[in-house]
Amino acid sequence: MTKGTVKVGRAWLVAALVSFMGSGCAMRPAQPAGIDAVAQPTARVKVEWRVPLSSDRPWESNPREFGKPVLAPGGDLVVGASDGYVYRVRTDSGEVVWSKEIGGAIDAPVTLADGFVYVASARGSLHKLSWERGEEVWRADARSAFEAQPAVGQGVVAVTDSADVLYVFDEVSGELVWDYQRRQPDFFTIKGGGAPVISGDRIYCGFADGYLVSLFADSGELEWSANLGDASQEFGDVDLPVIEDGEFLYAVSYAGGIYAVEKSSGALMWHQDIESVADLIMQGPWLLGVSATGHVFAIAKSDGEPVWRFRMPDEQSPVALSTTGPLLSVATASGPLYLVRTRDGRPVTRWNPSSGFQRAPVYDSVRGYTLSNRGYLYGYRLAY
């Protein structure tokens, strides 16, 4: 096979990229402050409502939904689906308040900001909608598909396309302010593009060539670039959104692992070689993640040292995670949603609506909300 830039899904790389991390084991018995080390929770999922969004697809043998419900501060949620529609939904009942056709599959979470909904579609169009009725305010177009969540701040909207171009549009008019592109590598890369994060007057974004960059939001001028790995490395993409924590940024290279860099300069502080990280979040003193090799893990954000790791049961491949109280919700691509203990990653219970998930649930103080691969939006409670 000749080499080329081939976009392949994270969840389907297990057979080709397995880097065995060993069986689950406690690596730091002492529990840092901020993590519940005492509670031994038990829970079960109690579904309160289910709404079919893009579920009428009998011709698809392996459907996937990359949309993720986003909660509004005053209640209700909004989610985009593969049928090309955006939906505003009541959190208490699942009632659809409005739906708006975008015209292309929505493969990333939408963004809510200042009473507006920003939606990026797989047809390469970015839409600004009103929160109240879903009316379109403006539309902007790119050259390739959008597969990452837009970032909003400093009067601009930033989003990357699948050709690794970062676009920055004016938040009010939708006019292109500037764009930034790095040379795409001539080897295999991961499906999707980097996801920009706006912090202060900077935009931080990763790219398929393994670089993380800091750009000035108003001009696109490059402040610094950090090479997170070998430039010749396949699957070295920096695709996940960086995590900002004071003076530091935490970034993931799919083949290279997890990196902590200094926000002001991009200087490397530490590196932990965990291959095939599919999702990473921060809670207290820890970074919590899942790997396509079948593991959920915790490392210390101070130095990257392992705290614990646990291999998922039944050879499941986790793709995303989120937190709720003392538990983590771990989504798997073709199987159940697992609830596992934050203290050690061991499963408490699982819930399987039969089709798997691509995104982790979101939670408010009452319920959890998730979109299954079959296009059903669920609202559920956790019964302890």
Automatic annotation (TrEMBL):
Domain Pyrrolo-quinoline quinone repeat: 83-309
Listed InterPro entries: PQQ_b-propeller_rpt, PQQ_rpt_dom, Quinoprotein_ADH-like_sf, WD40/YVTN_repeat-like_dom_sf
Keywords, comma-separated and alphabetical: Signal
Highest taxon in the source lineage: Bacteria
Keyword Signal listed: yes
Signal found in the keyword field: yes
PANTHER family (UniProt xref): CELL SURFACE PROTEIN (PTHR34512), OUTER MEMBRANE PROTEIN ASSEMBLY FACTOR BAMB (PTHR34512:SF30)
Protein name: Pyrrolo-quinoline quinone repeat domain-containing protein
Organism: Lujinxingia sediminis
